[in-house]
UniProtKB/TrEMBL annotation:
The chain crosses the membrane at residues 37-57, 69-92, 112-131, 151-176, 182-200, 216-237, 249-276. Keywords: Membrane, Transmembrane, Transmembrane helix. This is G-protein coupled receptors family 1 profile domain-containing protein. It comes from the Eukaryota. The keyword Signal does not apply.
Length: 325
């Protein structure tokens, strides 16, 4: 998540001179404070949604299919992007002041690699469903290879980015940010275009209702990438066109950046919503656990009430016997 909070500085190296009144300055501070709180709540909600997904899949064996385990890898990757980078960067800043520059650079690389891995795994999830439905013969022949080597192929694709950005951490730290952005944008738009092609073919050849059992996999992938699209378009436009006008539109660009960041950070929330809505097994696992606890509570309450009734009947019988005597 570190790039969300600091990427805008890569494009705005200078702060424009502002000669506003004290009232306007106070309004800007209030707006920034509100936006920061909004981003904090969105980040917290996303992390909680990812933790909920991990616990739900781990605790329910019925959900541990290949598709859901791939979703679990996606969630772990994005959770690492949200949490681990910030925590490790803070530790390096506090405990390793002498190597802070190189350590910070490597941790930023780790953040970007986690995000790119999320994009590729999301694409693998959509591709797995697409090949299963539209090319079943190919899928049956190469099922083992497709599922065994898919994750390693993603790691192999990320290897050039990891090596090159690591070299730049020592050679040219001033340009490593742009190198990261180039790799990240190429990875995203490559995945987005791939899923878009699948979507077009899916619309042209709709499936029967019986074949839509795992269609939520494609829906999750498409929704996740669509939530990340505004942020990536914004940074591309910033690099190509808006960079020259950063001093003129500086406040508006900051607000636009925060909006795209909030939309991107909401992707895990949308993913959990899609899972609960379209995957009945995921929803049943959640509601079933609650129903089971409620049923156990009701049974225990009924037993206690039944024992109380029995004790009450015994007291009534003994009281009637004493009266007869």
């Amino acid at each position: 998540m570190a790039d969300f909070l600091m990427d805008f500085d890569d494009y705005t190296t200078t702060t424009p001179s502002i000669n506003d009144s004290h009232k306007q300055t106070s309004n800007c501070i209030a707006v920034d404070y509100s936006i920061d709180w909004l981003l904090f709540m969105v980040v917290t909600g996303s992390i909680l949604a990812e933790i909920y997904t991990i616990i739900t899949i781990k605790k329910n064996k019925s959900l541990q299919t290949y598709q859901n385990l791939l979703i679990l890898k996606i969630v772990w990757s994005h959770l690492g992007y949200n949490v681990l980078g910030e925590v490790l960067i803070l530790l390096v800043t506090l405990l390793a002041e002498s190597v802070k520059s190189e350590g910070y650079c490597f941790l930023r690389n780790l953040d970007f690699l986690c995000l790119d891995m999320t994009y590729y795994l999301i694409t693998m999830l959509a591709l797995d469903w697409f090949v299963t439905q539209y090319h079943p013969n190919f899928y049956q022949k190469h099922l083992v290879a497709f599922r065994r080597w898919g994750l390693w192929i993603c790691c192999l694709v990320l290897l050039p980015e990891a090596l090159l950005t690591s070299v730049y951490c020592f050679a040219a730290t001033s340009t490593v940010g742009k190198v990261r952005h180039v790799f990240q944008k190429v990875s995203f738009f490559l995945c987005f275009v791939s899923v878009m092609v699948m979507l077009i073919k899916k619309r042209r050849r709709p499936l029967s209702m019986e074949s839509r059992k795992y269609q939520y996999c494609f829906t999750v992938s498409w929704a996740f990438l669509m939530m990340c699209l505004p942020r990536n378009i914004y940074y591309v436009l910033m690099e190509l066109y808006l960079y020259a006008y950063r001093t003129v539109f500086h406040p508006a660009l900051i607000i636009l950046n925060d909006i795209t960041v909030a939309i991107s950070l909401s992707a895990p929330l949308v993913m959990v919503y899609v899972l609960c809505k379209f995957n009945k097994h995921f929803k049943v696992a959640y509601t079933g656990c609650c129903k089971k606890k409620r049923a156990e509570t009701c049974i225990s309450d009924n037993l206690e009430n039944g024992n109380a009734d029995v004790r009450q009947e015994r007291n009534v019988v003994m009281y009637s016997v004493d009266i007869d005597q």
